[in-house]
Design a protein that fits this description.
This protein has 233 residues and is of the alpha+beta class. The protein has a 5-stranded mixed β-sheet, sandwiched between helices.
Length: 233
């Protein structure tokens, strides 16, 4: 592969060219870098489109979720990526995000593991804490989900008023609180219990129910509802 880095994609072996590989083996056979290379389309005098794709991925720690949060100004910091390429990448990532949301919009949450499956890809691998709220209708179908706050490795500040405002705007009848523990420990802290109680009390005033609070750490989770500490699904 070291020799191939000096060649343009068109000069590569057919099996190594992303477009040809996709046609021959199917899109699932392509790596993340190869898919990005198709979007980037052209390289520079010294780098192929695949080289640029690898550099773009590396700039986000090879994490597609983090890549999806990048702005045009972030992308153009990668040598060889201009505004046009940045916009193309961002558009593709946004389409993927919208597709995922469209699939989840009709998702009915019946147990804590359902909420975990939705949110694990969002926060499970993060090295810092994020606090999210999943908004549900009367049929327990997800209306939307929203990032409420993002913080450090040991905590994040949650504004109860922001949650209530969003819940009312979305006409939600129930909520599921979700946050991650980068430490890998899923034990609920006193702060976790306190914010849960505060949100539940505020929600009750608007006849909105907090059904669960899910703490996610890597591929495991803790459910307040399953532990009998709150409402329940």
């Amino acid at each position: 592969m070291d020799d191939q880095k000096k060649l343009t994609i068109k000069e590569w072996n057919a099996d190594d060219r992303p477009r040809e590989k996709m046609l021959a083996k199917g899109i699932s056979a392509l790596s993340d870098a190869e898919l990005l290379a198709i979007l980037i389309s052209t390289g520079t005098k010294s780098q192929s489109a695949l080289d640029l794709a690898r550099a773009v991925l590396a700039s986000a720690g090879n994490n597609l979720r983090l890549l999806g949060k990048r702005t045009v100004s972030d992308f153009v910091k990668v040598d060889g990526i201009g505004k046009a390429k940045a916009i193309t990448i961002m558009a593709a990532l946004e389409l993927g995000r919208r597709r995922g949301e469209g699939e989840l919009d009709i998702f009915k949450i019946e147990k804590s593991s359902d909420a975990f499956e939705i949110m694990r890809p969002v926060v499970g691998d993060l090295s810092y804490e994020q606090f999210w709220v999943v908004f549900l209708n009367r049929a327990n179908r997800m209306i939307d989900k929203a990032l409420i706050s993002s913080g450090g490795v040991s905590g994040t500040t949650v504004d109860v008023r922001v949650i209530m405002k969003l819940a009312i705007e979305k006409l939600a009848t129930s909520l599921i609180l979700v946050h991650n523990h980068p430490s890998g420990n899923i034990t609920a802290s006193s702060e976790d219990k306190n914010i849960t109680s505060r949100i539940a009390a505020a929600a009750k005033f608007f006849d909105i129910r907090v059904m669960d609070h899910i703490i996610i750490a890597d591929n495991k989770y803790f459910s307040f509802a399953d532990a009998g500490m709150i409402g329940g699904l």
